[in-house]
Amino acid sequence: MSGLTKNIFGAIITLLLIAFVFSLFYTEQKPTTVFSLDQLASKINSGEVAKITVSGNDLTIQLKDGPQATSKKETEVGLSETLKNYGVNPLALQKVNLEIKEESGFRYWASILIPSLLPLLIIGVFLWLMFRQARTGMSQAFTFGKANIKLFTQFKDRITFEDVAGLKEAKEELVEVVDFLKNPKKYLEIGARIPRGILLYGSTGTGKTLLARSVAGESNVPFFHISGSEFVEMFVGIGASRVRDLFRTAKKAAPCIVFIDEIDAVGRERGAGLGGGHDEREQTLNQILVEMDGFDRETQVIVIAATNRPDILDSALLRPGRFDRRIILDLPNINDREAILKIHSREKILNRDINLRQVAERTPGFSGADLANLLNEAAILAARKNRKEVIQQNIFDSIEKVLLGPERRSRVLSVKEKEITAYHEAGHALVATSIKNADPVHKVSIIARGRTGGYTLKLPIEETYLRTKSQFMADLAVLLGGYISERIIFGDISTGGSNDLQIASDLARKLVTKFGMSEKIGPITYGKTEELVFLGREIATEKNYSEKVAGEIDKEVRAIIEKARDLAKKIITSRNRVLKAIAKKLIEKETLEREEFDTLIKSFKLKPISV
Ligand code: ADP
Ligand code: MG
Ligand code: ZN
């Protein structure tokens, strides 16, 4: 209930109460005849009155022949006195049965107090309501300093390691932690120091939060969950006091686990950054460090933190005794992807012929979250097509949707645009199939998607964490293939390829300044990229080299691009017939799947060119 409705509610209740109290007094009075004292006196004198009951100033008169009547006496004077003043015969009065009723406490006092106190009472009630309102506001302000920790133990959807696919090393590490919390004695007796902090890192969607939750499910100890951003709110000083509160609660509940998600929100490198408010963050971070240092050997509180930006974490967090265990969560490999798909297909109705392995093959680079999303998209697609179960094609169609955003069929290409796009994509595809080291083409399409015009989807055959220089050169040539093709066929260039050129230039510059892949420049990296906390992105690259070196770098970048361009040019001019065949087929069918594309290429019996 909001404060306002509460107030109105309170006011209504009060009014109802007042009405009730009033009704108590008024309904008791039966409508009876009212005598003036004068009348009463004459009735007494004529002997009609049997009994008078006096209650305060009220007189209830019982007449001999039945009916009752009421009257009032004067306030200060006794009844007999009053009646005497009205000329009642004392003898006649003696015959009347007089009963003096002590005015009953409540009614008496109420009749005196309520009229005078009622206004005060109403004012009092309103004041009380207002105070209460203010007090809740105040106590809200006080709880700002309390950590908004959530206890995970009573979670309905308990998650265990079973629900997390892959991540084998991470799980092993965490199993140890769980075991420690279950039998701390075993470790303490042998003199082992308990790990205090475990830092999970990996890119978004790799399952950090999921894994931490599964630890909660496995260990059966209290699990406190807070997100880094919750430490820092509007008021200065809140963060640190929340940290204190969190650890106080945790120590009371030990053995237990504290999970700080997205710790980079508070744990950024101190003393960096432009924006205001990072003082607050520093205080919060300092408090975390202080609290973790304050654990003694026996404290059975384990702090797990997660981040996708380990590079920007303050180095103090990583020192021994703090987050000294670090677990890296990699993007899933093909087996893991299959396992993740299996887990997420549990609640979905899939066709019997679905082959999740094939889906896994087509989704390198997808994170766990992407895969979960993929299956969901597939289910939505199937439902939209009024299917009762999800078929393989629904999943395949969703892969690109997850990759590139929804298909924009509504964007109609003019005939000319379609031709240009077809030759552009054919250029990419031809160069990609021609070069030995390039990734094979999985799909070519001139249907616009997301922000790209058409696209050529090429995927590595196997996952590679390392790429060689010749692979990069192949990538560059493929990137430039679209641009070259347009130039050769139309003698003109459209804006469609500018994104390719941008990517190519960036890649070439990286080869020279980061990967040391240029002969002339040699194995030195240039430029220190500094993270500006305020914007949270790489925006400033400090130039730590001279103008002369800068010139050389530019020259090398240009040389690399030119080499790639020449390669692409050579392929496209010498294999012009193939280019035209691909483009024609694209204009006709708009999308070529891998099999169609391969059959088309095979008929030309091309020899792979090595870089
Ligand atoms: P992060 O915290 O690393 O950004 P999450 O833990 O929030 O990622 O993962 C998002 C979702 O992706 C999870 O809820 C889960 O559905 C799915 N997911 C990610 N990794 C896995 C995995 N290894 N096994 C099963 N599901 C996963
Ligand atoms: Mg997360
Ligand atoms: Zn392109």
UniProtKB/TrEMBL annotation:
GO biological process, one term: cell division
Cofactor detail note: Binds 1 zinc ion per subunit.
DNA damage keyword on record: no
Residues given in the record as Zn(2+) binding sites: 424, 428, 500
CDD domains according to UniProt: RecA-like_FtsH
Keywords, ordered alphabetically: ATP-binding, Cell cycle, Cell division, Cell membrane, Hydrolase, Membrane, Metal-binding, Metalloprotease, Nucleotide-binding, Protease, Transmembrane, Transmembrane helix, Zinc
Residues at the active site: 425
Chain ranges passing through the membrane: 7-26, 108-131
Main location per the UniProt record: membrane
NCBIfam families for this protein: FtsH_fam (TIGR01241)
Protein name: ATP-dependent zinc metalloprotease FtsH
Organism: Candidatus Wolfebacteria bacterium CG1_02_39_135
